[in-house]
Every structure is written in structure tokens, then in C-alpha cells.
Amino acid sequence: MFNVLGMLLACLTLLASPVAAQSVRIKDLVEVDGVRSNDLVGYGLVVGLNGTGDGLRNSPFTEEIMQNILERLGVNVTGEQFRPRNVAAVLVTGRLPAFARTGGQIDVTVSAIGDAGSLLGGTLIMTPLNAADGQIYAVAQGTVIAGGAAAEGDGARVVQGVPTSGVIPSGARVEREVPFDFTSLTTLRLALREPDFTTAARIEAVINRSLGRRAATMLDAGTITLDLARAGTGSPARTIVSIENLAVEPQRRARVVVDQRSGTIVMGADVRISRVAVSQGGLTLRIEEAPIAIQPNPFAEGETVVVPRTGAAIEEEPGIGLAEVPTGTNLSEVIAGLNALGVAPRDMIDILKSIKAAGALHADFVVM
After folding, report:
1. Is pLDDT above 80 for 118?
2. What is the dihedral of CA 72, 73, 74, 76, to 10 degrees?
3. What's the pLDDT tens digit per position in 225-257?
4. Residues of the chain with pLDDT > 70: what percent?
5. Residue 4 pLDDT more than 50?
6. What is the SS3 assignment for 227-274?
7. Average pLDDT over residues 351-363
8. What is the pTM (predicted TM-score) of this model?
9. 214 in Cβ contact with 222 (< 8 Å)
10. What 3-state DSSP class applies to 120?
11. Residue 289, phi then psi, degrees to nearest 5
12. Of the residues 148, 174, 200, which one is the last residue of a structural domain?
């Protein structure tokens, strides 16, 4: 047992110094109520694949949509048997931004829904995109840019990335606008992306100070209302222009985010640890089987016997002895000390979990 606190202080040559809060524009902190995008989805067909399309016996819906498309083009395929391997059924998704106008273009994502091996080099045939109300708002078509590659031979197959999904930049054209009369609004609501009472109060104060009158009112931690009549800017759009670039110092909850797969630890500057003692170590159990075959002597009667032989051992891995962390210690200091002692990232995550479970880690603990 040894006191790690002394080693932590000895290993730390540069302690974390407090960093001044950075000012952030209001437009990066809030969303304007009503100014939002809308999700679109459609079902279509990708053609021109190099033998990597759907197996139509396993994906009968591909044959059905291909038959419908050909019939609309005047080709009668009723009762015909066709089994091409260069087509694939896909779902097409996109996002219609706020204030999108007819004739504008948006990006779309194309994803295979059958057993196609790759969409590389394929072309999406004209696909209508519907919103949640069932109306068509855009039509997509174009060459798919796949995000991976695949190759196979008689006895092996290699895949890099995700070749069954791709994008079409500016691949959909807006055909219908979302009805929304922004100029008729008399009140604007600002919704904070990360609700916080202090940040909301600061936004309210900055807006009122800039406009010279009490036009902004904080309703709760995530909502601020703007009275356009008091703002005196003439229109909702001009009101947003006059306030969206104002700087505010946001306040956020202390948070620690860990990724167990990669061993990544991200923490805020406000994370604090109360007085706590930590002891960490590990046991490794090793079992090895080494059976021995015993045979009878030459020209003697008998049978070969296999005698089991097992080796078992328990090893205690070197860890951290009892360590006492004083109240108010910055978590970055503890992490730096653990790094200096050579503690593995995954062991460090386990230590942080235990400190949080003990109630000594004062922050939101997010595990990904």
C-alpha cells in the first residue's frame, strides 16, 4: 500500500489553470421556434450496378418496382421473367431546410434495403420524397457516390467501409414549399439547445440591453420570448438579424463523457471531485491443460492411457494502492496523475465509474 496522492503531486509539473469562459453568439446557442427543417423519405431503384444488385428471388419488391417503372415508360413486361443483377431497391432520405423554395436543391442519402452487395457506380432513378404529411416535397435522381468498396473471389470477400450506402450531393429538387408565414408573427420564441437558467438569463439581459427596451422575457431554462412590438425593428427577420450575433458567455452542467470502445475520456473544466479514497488492482486466473499420454512397454499387453495434467495459477496485477484525493481537486489533475502512473484508459474509466457511484464525482457521467 502506498499513498498515490504524493505521487500525483510529484508527477504533476503543470496543473490545470482555470480557463476564462468564451463568448458565443446567440445564433449558436438557440433555435428560433418555427424555423426548422423537415425530414423526407422515398422508395426508389438504383440501376447500372456491376452485378452487385439485389437477388430478385430474395428481394421480390425490387422486381415489383422495376416492373412499375418500365410500365410507366411504356414497356409491357407483364408475365415476363427477368432476373437482372444490376438493380437494387433503396430508401432515399433527405432533409428539407427551413425556407426552402421551389427549384432549390438538397442532398440525399441512398441506402440499400435488399441484399445488394454495393451501390458503387449506380444511378438513382427518379424518386419522389414524401414528408410526414404524405405530400411530395422533392424529387431525387442522380449518380450515387458510395462510401466504401467491396471485392470478392471464389473463396474470399473483402469489404471496406459501407458500400451499400451513399449520397447524392444536390440530388433532389424541391417541388413544394412548406407553408409558413414568418412575417405574420408577433412573438418569437428562442429555444436553447442546452437549457440552462443562467444562460437564458444572460441572453435575456444581452438582448434587452442591445435593443434598449425590455423586449425579451425568460420563461424557463430553455425558452425566451421576444415581443416584436417592443423590439421596434419592423419585422421578425430584422429582429433576428439584430440579436443573433450578440455574444453571451454560456453556462453548462459539468459533464464527463467516456467511450468504452476507444478508451476516450472527455471532461469539462468545471468537474470537481470530493474527498474520496481509491484502491484499484486486478486478479488474473490462468488455467492450462497439458495432458500426458502413457503407453505400455514394447511387446507388452496394455492400453494407452491419457493422464490429465492441469496447471492453475492466480496472479495479482500491480495496481493502485489506497489513494486519498482531497476535496475540490480538479478531475483533470487526477487524470494527469493517473496517466503519469501508467494507468490504462479502460482502468481509468472503471475508476471514474466507481468515484461516480460513491457520490464523489460532481458531474453528469455519460457512457457511450
Report:
1. yes
2. -70
3. 999 888 877 788 888 998 999 999 988 888 888
4. 71
5. no
6. EHHHHCCCCHHHHHHHHCCCEECCCCCCEEEEECCCCEEEECCCCEEC
7. 80
8. 0.67
9. no
10. coil
11. -100, 125
12. 174
The whole-angstrom separation of Cα 308 and Cα 289 is 8
Q: Do 165 and 226 reside in the same domain of the chain?
A: no
What is the amino acid identity at position 190? L
86 plus 168 within the same structural domain: yes
Q: Give the C-alpha separation, 100 to 138, whole Å.
A: 11
Q: How far apart are the first and last CA of the chain?
A: 33
Cell of 320: 493502485
- In terms of Cβ atoms closer than 10 Å to its own Cβ (0-12, 13-18, 19+), residue 212 is exposed
Question: Are 109 and 235 part of one and the same domain?
Answer: no
- Alpha carbon dihedral 78, 81, 84, 87, in 10-degree steps, equals 30
Cell digits for 319? Answer: 495496481
Q: Do 335 and 278 touch, CB atoms closer than 8 A?
A: no
Which structural domain, as residue segments, surrounds residue 196?
Answer: 24-34+180-248
**Mean pLDDT across the chain, nearest whole number?**
78
Q: Do 52 and 170 fall into the same domain? A: yes
| pLDDT band with cut points at 50, 70 and 90 for residue 17 | very low
Phi, psi of 243, rounded to the nearest 5 degrees: -120, -20
Q: Do the strands 364-367 and 255-259 form a parallel or antiparallel pair, or are they unpaired?
A: parallel
Are the C-beta atoms of 114 and 61 separated by less than 8 Å? yes
Strands 247-248, 24-25: pairing is antiparallel
- Evaluate whether 187 touches 149 at the Cβ level (below 8 Å): no
Mean pLDDT across 121-136: 92
Range name among 199-203, 214-218, 289-293 with the lowest pLDDT average: 289-293
User: Which residue, among 124, 44, 43, 114, has the nearest Cα to 85 in the 3D structure?
Assistant: 114
Most confident of 25-29, 58-62, 299-303: 25-29
Contacts of 120 by beta carbon, 8 Å cutoff, 6+ apart = 49, 50, 52, 144, 146, 148, 149, 150, 163, 166
Q: 138: closest CA among 173, 107, 100, 180?
A: 173
Which of 174, 190, 209 lies at the terminal end of a domain, its last residue? 174
| Predicted pLDDT of residue 20 | 45
Supply angle C-alpha 177, 179, 183, rounded to 5.
Answer: 115
